[in-house]
Write a structure and sequence with these properties.
Length: 331
């Protein structure tokens, strides 16, 4: 990320004309490690800190933990959320569908880059070709979640573009913690789980679970989750958005420079019972990183356009995000 450009963008936002802004912000994040910057912001009260510094505080924050693109999108469209973290494909789908409506949304920034793994509990499943009609694959949200879309991309790679939806009938919408419990038990219909860290890593500590495919094999370490907001909220609250970008940048730098502290924040906020050394292992993974600038989001948009899921999609990554980050080295 070009930090000079980011600071210039934040300064431009901060210089916006003073106006009455919201005094309450409703936010959400998911369970996985790719939501860590939001967890750090929540744990260390960074948005409140930067809102005060920019003269738009004090803010009352209401945080929720939501998993699955459908659930998050529904909450945003119903007006129950102002800012949320979600999978990049689900956000793009909602952006395209609502772009000219009163419920339009806008990207705020990238959230986390890295990999998800498709894990299985049947030894005979060695590739996605080995899943049969007797199997079920857990994903956070059917059709819209990152995992569901990447499963379609993997199917297109294996079976041809015309068969991209071949595995869709096998998918079951299920939050990551519940999906992990089902997979490792081996006692339910769930035989596969497209899991994000820490669940992907934790599942492999069980002898009956193995990895089938990593999203890095298909896409490289690109942005998995983004932060998005109601467009109406973003435009009406430039000071809060400036504070959010500054808080996100501080959270990213905190994670990079204090992994032990970041692991503690993750443990406190996520309430996932993990050994500290496992959390550190995930944070030391070179495929995992946290930046404000999104990376590779157009790969999703292009695939969604080819499948017909998205019509009138973006022509550039900047179409999806607020102008204040357009100067960053995104893609």
């Amino acid at each position: 990320m070009h930090r000079r450009n980011f600071l210039a963008a934040a300064a431009a936002l901060a210089a916006a004309p003073a106006r009455a802004e919201a005094n309450e912000v409703r936010l959400s994040h998911g369970y996985g490690i790719h939501y860590l910057p939001l967890m750090v912001m929540r744990d260390r009260k960074l948005l409140e800190k930067h809102a005060e510094a920019k003269g738009v505080g004090p803010l009352q924050l209401s945080w929720r933990t939501l998993d699955g693109g459908n659930t998050i999108n529904d909450a945003m469209l119903s007006g129950a959320l102002d800012i949320a973290g979600t999978g990049a494909p689900g956000f793009i789908t909602l952006w395209a569908k609502a772009r000219n409506a009163n419920s339009a949304v806008t990207g705020v920034c990238g959230l986390g880059n890295g990999a998800l793994w498709l894990n299985a509990n049947k030894p005979e499943i060695k590739s996605i070709r080995d899943f049969s009609q007797k199997d079920k694959i857990a994903v956070p949200g059917i059709k819209t979640s990152f995992a569901a879309v990447v499963l379609e991309m993997a199917a297109a790679h294996e079976f041809g573009m015309e068969n991209y939806a071949k595995l869709d009938p096998l998918t079951v919408g299920m939050p990551h913690p519940e999906a992990m419990a089902a997979l490792v038990s081996g006692k339910t219909e769930i035989t596969g789980h497209f899991a994000s860290p820490p669940f992907s890593n934790q599942e492999l500590t069980y002898p009956n679970v193995h990895r089938v495919v990593s999203t890095v094999d298909l896409l490289g370490p690109i942005t998995i989750d983004v932060v998005f907001a109601s467009k109406r909220f973003a435009e009406a609250n430039p000071g809060i958005m400036a504070a959010f970008l500054a808080a996100k940048d501080e959270a990213d730098r905190f994670i990079a420079g204090n992994k032990a502290g970041a692991a503690e924040s993750f443990a406190r906020v996520s309430k996932v019972n993990l050994a500290p050394e496992l959390i550190r292992t995930m944070l030391d993974d070179p495929e995992t990183s946290f930046t404000v600038a999104p990376a590779g989001v157009l790969k999703y948009a292009e695939f969604l356009a080819r499948t017909g899921t998205v019509k009138n999609g973006p022509s550039a990554w900047t179409d999806l995000f607020i102008p204040e980050i357009h100067g960053l080295a995104g893609s």
